[in-house]
């Protein structure tokens, strides 16, 4: 079983595979020399024809072949290691590069947990394919033919018998392959499902604990683990049965060759030296294929994961455009955009909106109406099913991805904060920023005092910024966004889940951009959007209304209803406080 895609994927690893086969083959020749010499010595002793000279020569040859063979085995294993390292490095960097090329919208192609599993366990499985299976496959084709050529002169009948029995092993492998392929596909399915649930449950463990739902999640995972255990046992049983079958073929075939040589010896048709040579080398006809059989199942696993990896690697990438220069006018527009996460459910229906350069535009609407979906489409994380998104009058597909990302900064409500320092998190927005600029950004979001009270810019941050409060995390994300200094900003509920003080600081920073940058603000709090140049009101994925705050209040439509309801609630809150 040769996977052509895998073979053509890493030519350098193939080179190591070739050298591995060569070293194994030379090692086998050493073994043949050793066996033939020992047989000749024993034959000579029994025939009483062994001279002192021949004894010394024979012993010297034996002493020489042993270290040479050992050295060749080491070389073969070194080649195996090199192929393994090369394949792992090439595959992992290809997966990483692919995910980078897929860009902000990578999750449209592959779930994060699946990408992690493919790059870790999936690559390990393919490693065995290159490091063990492939060299063994070529070596097992070469070894029996070489032995036949060497032994046919010793005893033709035994050599022919041995060679004829060799194909029984690949035949038994092929027989189990059909069954194994389906089984392994199911195995991988169960494996990734279990991995997905595990990751999700670990990430959500605190929530599960709060609601005391960890018990039933535990049960659910137990059921998944049980299904995985069952399919693993099926795979192991299949492997064990096929190994038994292969053993039967290997040792049965060697036994037939030995019986043939022994009977010829008994009849006096074969010398003791020749009979011993056949006897000692008979198993070597089969052992390479027998070993291939045991690698075969790992290789099948590798092939199954390779299919998934190649599906990811060949997934369609968003076409990277040519346009790089900053547009003279960075007006952003959605023209008749329709979008759905799933084919059967449309989320956005024929949405058309224009965000002129330097304007302050807000998107509002009830929860689930599609505001974040519009933000995702604007930032390139999602692609419109129909219609077009244009930047400076040019379809975004014509922009070079890197430039499009440089021109637009998305600040979501849960912006990622990375383990490291405050400085490292800020510098990813502008690597060459002067320290004063970093501090200015922190000042703008009212985080500078806190940083000074810690270790300044060197303040250490834990994974996800978990040693900061929610408000501090969001203010840091805001400071980073300000440093990015892009002409367009999209704030998607950037102040949700934060305290009133942080909300104030963040909103102040957002409003400070008005007039200088294009700002698209998505906010559940309508008091924040009152000063917008234009407010788009979404209802069930459609633009229901648009206009300034006063226009929309006067229209007494959806916005006015939402605004008044919210104001009443806030007034009530103030009175009771
Ligand atoms: N990744 C996803 N896969 C499938 N459906 C999704 C996904 N994300 C959002 N949706 C669906 O799309 C619809 C719009 O979601 P979206 O997040 O855009 O709403 P929203 O207006 O931003 O809501 P909110 O104000 O609550 O954040 C929702 O009905 C939601 O169920």
From TrEMBL:
One Pfam short name: ABC_tran
GO-annotated cellular components: plasma membrane
CDD domains: ABC_6TM_AarD_CydDC_like
Keywords: ATP-binding, Cell membrane, Membrane, Nucleotide-binding, Transmembrane, Transmembrane helix, Transport
GO molecular function: ABC-type oligopeptide transporter activity; ATP binding; ATP hydrolysis activity
PANTHER family registered for this protein in UniProt: ATP-BINDING CASSETTE SUB-FAMILY B MEMBER 10, MITOCHONDRIAL, ATP-DEPENDENT PERMEASE MDL1, MITOCHONDRIAL
Name of the molecule in the record: Thiol reductant ABC exporter, CydD subunit
